[in-house]
Q: What sequence folds into this?
């Protein structure tokens, strides 16, 4: 690994825990019938997220050009480069590694779907990004989502398909792989153990409560994964800054849900 890539990866995984807690605000293409409240005002959302000091923020190149300046150099930036819809009607790479470097990014994220009729095209997108990023020493984070095409191409979380997703990222040369969590530490640990590169969990759908999302994150940490990238369970929370602080307490400090909520200044109630 060249020194430029190592430097950028070290920024992402700078915490002594060896894990990272990043926030993704790159979800726009998935909400074609209106944006959720947490994504409507990007300037406000960024301010709330930045106040919690995430280990990185993932966003599309447009907002990075127009809204990231107050945080440049303070928080690692990951440029999201691919947008696609569940039915694959949209499947495009909209940012190049060279653009990410010019924006000061520490990595480029490439989201792909696998286990479908267009899997080969997705793998080509990822492999091409890896090839183009290498001369810049720019890490590629593969966001690999296995899907079930027997119904609505919904993302699936069973160990066999998640293992396939991780292997696809490995084979294409990704430096970090983000994939759906299987739901329990034992099965995810078996998958993480097979990967020569860091595996992080996707934050997943909006949980019923912050407590529920934190309990799931405890399992992610117990699996040996290198952290998580979280979206709607942070920017969709009533207080995104405090939600992020709670996630950081779990991911970095192995805090219980009750302790994480307390550290974040949130009401504990019956959390464990």
A:
């Amino acid at each position: 690994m060249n020194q430029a890539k190592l430097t950028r990866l070290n920024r992402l995984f700078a915490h002594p825990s060896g894990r990272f807690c990043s926030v993704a605000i790159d979800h726009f293409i998935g909400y074609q019938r209106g944006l959720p409240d947490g994504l409507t005002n990007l300037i406000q959302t960024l301010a709330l997220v930045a106040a919690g000091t995430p280990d990185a923020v993932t966003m599309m190149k447009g907002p990075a050009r127009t809204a990231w300046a107050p945080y440049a150099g303070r928080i690692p930036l990951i440029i999201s480069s691919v947008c696609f819809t569940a039915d694959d009607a949209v499947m495009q790479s909209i940012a190049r590694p060279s653009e990410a470097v010019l924006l000061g990014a520490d990595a480029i994220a490439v989201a792909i779907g696998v286990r479908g009729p267009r899997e080969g095209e997705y793998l080509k997108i990822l492999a091409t990004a890896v090839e183009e990023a290498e001369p810049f020493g720019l890490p590629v984070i593969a966001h690999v989502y296995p899907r079930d095409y027997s119904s609505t191409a919904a993302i699936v979380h069973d160990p066999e398909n998640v293992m396939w997703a991780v292997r696809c990222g490995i084979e294409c040369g990704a430096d970090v792989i983000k994939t759906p969590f299987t739901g329990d530490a034992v099965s995810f640990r078996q998958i993480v153990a097979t990967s020569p590169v860091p595996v992080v969990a996707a934050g997943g759908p909006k949980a019923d409560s912050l407590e529920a999302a934190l309990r799931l994150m405890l399992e992610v940490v117990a699996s040996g994964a290198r952290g998580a990238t979280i979206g709607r369970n942070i920017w969709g929370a009533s207080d995104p800054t405090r939600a992020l602080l709670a996630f950081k307490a779990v991911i970095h400090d192995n805090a219980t849900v009750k302790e994480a909520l307390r550290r974040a200044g949130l009401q504990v109630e019956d959390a464990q």
